[in-house]
Amino acid sequence: MEITGVEVLKARGYGMKLQVDTRATSIEAVVGQIMSRYHVADINIADPPMESIIATIYRENRPAAETGGQTSGASGEGATGETPDDPSREATASA
Question: What are the tens digits of pLDDT across the range 2-21?
Answer without folding.
Answer: 889 999 999 999 899 999 99
